[in-house]
């Protein structure tokens, strides 16, 4: 039986207000792909995130959300290979929210890898993750929300 570790990701990105955060993506969904949301595949990684529609993933049989989302199938790659997704630049003084749901699981309970969130400053390197999760997290969706404070005149960019 082939092992099929993979990561599914629903990502929402917004500026947090001073009141409670509303879970919206500012009208931007993955239904039209990555570009309208200003998300980009990193050209220096080993493989890409896949844009998929829920109707194409019926074989998963796991609370697959309606609409579109991003997926990494790590079973097709070597240990240590990376798929990186770049989020829009954050320039203004503010607190930005990275709000997402993830499903990190592998059949046969093999290690599906690590899901990291990095932030770089002024086009520097993505060095240490600001958030991560490693290994199979069960057959369920999990939610995470990160707040990234930015300070002018620096540019910040998150990478998943």
From TrEMBL:
**CDD domains this protein is in?**
MAM (cd06263)
Gene3D superfamilies attached to this UniProt entry = 2.60.120.200
Q: Name one Pfam family in it.
A: MAM
Which key words are in the record?
Disulfide bond, Repeat, Signal
Signal sequence region: 1-20
What's a GO cellular component annotated to this UniProt protein? membrane
Q: Where is the MAM domain?
A: 26-160
Q: Which protein is depicted? A: MAM domain-containing protein
**Origin organism of this chain?**
Scyliorhinus torazame
């Amino acid at each position: 039986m082939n092992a099929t570790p993979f990561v599914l990701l629903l990502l929402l990105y917004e500026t947090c207000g001073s009141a409670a955060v509303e879970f919206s993506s500012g009208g931007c969904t993955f239904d039209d792909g990555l570009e309208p949301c200003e998300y980009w595949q990193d050209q220096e990684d080993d493989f890409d995130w896949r844009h998929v529609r829920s109707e194409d993933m019926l074989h998963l049989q796991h609370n697959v959300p309606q609409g579109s989302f991003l997926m990494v199938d790590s079973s097709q790659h070597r240990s240590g290979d990376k798929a990186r997704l770049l989020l829009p630049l954050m320039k203004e003084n503010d607190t930005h929210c990275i709000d997402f749901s993830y499903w990190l699981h592998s059949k046969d309970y093999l290690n599906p890898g690590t899901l990291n969130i990095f932030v770089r400053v002024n086009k520097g390197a993505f060095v240490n993750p600001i958030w991560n999760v490693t290994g199979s997290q069960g057959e369920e969706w999990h939610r995470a929300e990160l707040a990234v404070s930015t300070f002018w005149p620096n540019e910040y960019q998150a990478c998943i």
